[in-house]
Write a structure and sequence with these properties.
Layout: E1 2-6, H1 16-20, E2 24-27, E3 43-46, H2 54-58, E4 65-68, H3 78-84, E5 87-90, H4 96-112, H5 114-122, E6 140-144, H6 148-159, E7 163-167, H7 173-178, E8 182-183, H8 186-192, E9 195-198, H9 212-216, E10 222-226, H10 235-243, E11 247-252, E12 271-273, H11 282-300, H12 316-339, E13 344-352, H13 361-373, H14 385-391, E14 395-401, E15 410-417, E16 421-429, E17 433-439, E18 442-446, E19 451-458, H15 463-473, E20 478-485, E21 491-498, H16 505-511, E22 516-523
Helix pairs in contact: 4-6, 12-13, 13-14
The structure holds nicotinamide-adenine-dinucleotide and (2R)-2-hydroxypentanedioic acid.
EC number: 1.1.1.95
Family: Belongs to the D-isomer specific 2-hydroxyacid dehydrogenase family.
Pfam families: 2-Hacid_dh, 2-Hacid_dh_C, ACT, PGDH_inter
């Protein structure tokens, strides 16, 4: 049974797939309310209120996945989660439209003083001339951060007859052209814009991105908006620039500290604000809940998730292509690791064949996690596998080869240890499953079963019979046996599978067969 803590207000209708699953228990409590059961929690679902710090993660030793019902993950300590092998997923586009619409509503309200006029009217006043506004038409809108929300705002601005200029260091010329916007460096955008709205994530680079120095390069009378994350617009600098009359007004949905109780910016008449409402619509909340519920379910079904922050992003089409190889590579990594019980310097994997024609990074991570699971512990997964390899000074390489040796797909692994090397190749055959087709240069063909014994020996009459006899004498039933050799009388291998795990003692008995040069018990 997986225990999932729903720590923030997430729309229950969206959690249907989780509440219907028989192996999942949903616990709707805050972290404080669940204090006594944190050590049993497998997944946590949050919005922006709960801060998932390293300390909180330490109180949750079983935690496997953190799901953010929204976009921004600045309330989650991603490096700490990655180190622990905890997958972090979000709902990247479920609230895009709502936030774009909210930003637009804020912009119109700011330019027409709607909140101030409303408050005045409610106060019994009728001050029409005090609230003369400015049209949006023909104004230049500067969008800083041109991702999903930035793009939706541009579409709406164009319909209002605005000119749109954007700054985003990762924007391609192609997307700028498709969206009919002018892409400019930040220092060129700022002096041109009548209104500036920021839509970047909050990172070390974007914290304070728009500060006093930058605001001074803007037109006198510029309007600014922040419906992304508190701190992208430096709050102290913004306050000063408004008070000095350089900035005409600001619209803020987000703050460095939330709630921003007693914040000096809220005292200014030309600052309008909402309490982080960008994503607060029925539609967005349902969308994000459905998206994260599906991701968590996918994860607990043992399948790769599609919107992880600390794993490579993977589309539905790629997911379908990856799935057949996902377990095969983990098993290959695990076999290699159990056959190479020594210090490892290098692991390299080669992908060949048409059915492996996708970004194989996720497979390499899965393979490396399989390699480390038997060495480190079960908390190794695709999230932290490469980090663990790096920490241990192991180089991981990935190559694509045109030669799949006649297979429709072929994955080959080479592990270089302090004293030996090991190679292993596997393939996935539709309707037939995973096969290991080469081990240490020996052609072979076996299905990676749960309990295996790998023996390398001199090719002599009686060796196979002797191994069978020793196992039989100890009441061990052989389920399958595959043999391979390069040439008669040279080195040969056998791979045996069993219904039950083989005890370590059996290795001692088998070692008496002097032709055996190497042996490894493998459990998958
Ligand atoms: N107010 C709300 O309720 C609410 C709701 C949803 C999202 N958000 C926030 O809105 C922001 C944007 O969300 P999104 O879904 O559009 O994200 P996105 O990832 O689609 O877009 C962000 C864009 O910022 C760009 N960027 C990154 N670093 C930059 C830099 N240094 N300078 C300029 N551009 C940079 C990226 O290239 C990307 O195109 C995020 O901060 C998110 O947390 C707020
Ligand atoms: O949970 C919320 O309402 C805020 C969501 C928003 O800030 C986001 O980043 O998705």
């Amino acid at each position: 049974m997986y225990r999932i803590l729903v720590a923030d207000a997430i729309k229950p209708e969206g959690l249907g797939p989780l509440s219907e699953a028989s192996n999942i228990l949903l616990i709707q409590k805050t972290v404080e309310e669940a204090a006594n059961e944190l050590d049993q929690i497998d997944a946590i679902l949050v919005r922006s209120a709960t801060k998932v710090t390293e300390d909180l993660m330490n109180r949750m030793p079983q935690l496997k996945i953190i799901a953010r019902a929204g976009v921004g993950v600045d309330n989650i300590d991603i490096p700490a989660a990655t180190k622990r092998g905890i997958v972090v997923v979000n709902a990247p586009d479920g609230n895009t439209i709502s936030t774009a619409e909210h930003t637009f509503a804020m912009m119109a309200s700011l330019m027409r003083h709607i909140p101030q006029a409303y408050a005045s009217l409610k106060n019994g006043e009728w001050k029409r001339s005090s609230y003369t506004g400015t049209e949006l038409r023909s104004k230049t809108l500067g969008i800083v951060g041109f991702g999903r929300i930035g793009g939706e705002i541009a579409k709406r601005a164009k319909v209002f007859g605005m000119e749109v200029i954007v700054f985003d260091p990762f924007l391609t010329a192609d997307r700028a052209k498709k969206m009919s916007v002018t892409s400019l460096p930040l220092d060129k955008l700022l002096p041109k814009a009548d209104i500036i709205t920021v839509h970047t994530p909050l990172t070390n680079e974007t914290r304070g991105l728009i500060n006093k120095e930058k605001l001074l390069t803007c037109k006198k009378g510029v309007y600014v908006l922040n419906c992304a994350r508190g701190g992208i617009l430096d709050e102290d600098d913004l306050y000063e620039m408004i008070v000095k009359g350089h900035v005409a007004g600001a619209a803020l949905d987000v703050f460095v500290e939330e709630p921003p109780l007693g914040h000096k910016l809220l005292e200014l008449d030309n600052v309008i604000a909402t309490p982080h409402l960008g994503a607060s619509t029925k539609e967005a909340q349902l969308n994000v809940a459905v998206q994260v519920a599906q991701e968590v379910l996918t994860y607990f079904e043992g399948n790769p998730v599609s919107s992880s922050i600390n794993l490579p992003a993977i589309s539905k089409e790629v997911f379908e292509k990856v799935q057949p190889f996902y377990q095969l590579v983990q098993q290959m990594g695990s076999i290699a690791s159990q056959c190479m019980k020594e210090g490892i310097q290098e692991i390299s994997v080669t992908y060949a064949g048409e059915s492996l024609d996708f970004d194989t990074a996720i497979l390499t991570k899965s393979l490396i996690s399989g390699f480390f699971k038997s060495r480190v512990d079960a908390s190794v997964n695709e999230v932290n596998a490469l980090l663990i390899a790096k920490e241990r000074g192991i180089t991981v390489g990935e190559k694509i080869s045109a030669d799949s040796l006649g297979y429709s797909n072929l994955i080959s692994l080479k592990v270089k240890g302090d004293n030996r090397e090991l190679t292993i190749s596997g393939t996935y055959i539709e309707n037939y499953g995973s096969r290991i087709v080469n081990l240490n240069g020996f052609k072979i063909d076996f299905h990676p079963e749960e309990n295996l014994l790998y023996i390398q020996h001199t090719d002599k009459p009686g060796v196979i019979g002797n191994v069978g006899k020793i196992l039989g004498d100890h009441e061990v039933n052989i389920a399958t046996m595959q043999v391979g050799r390069k040439e008669a009388g040279g080195e040969a291998i056998m791979v045996l599978s069993f219904d039950k795990p083989l005890s370590d003692n059996m290795k001692q008995f088998l070692k008496e067969t002097e032709e055996i040069t190497f042996m490894a018990l493998i459990s998958l």
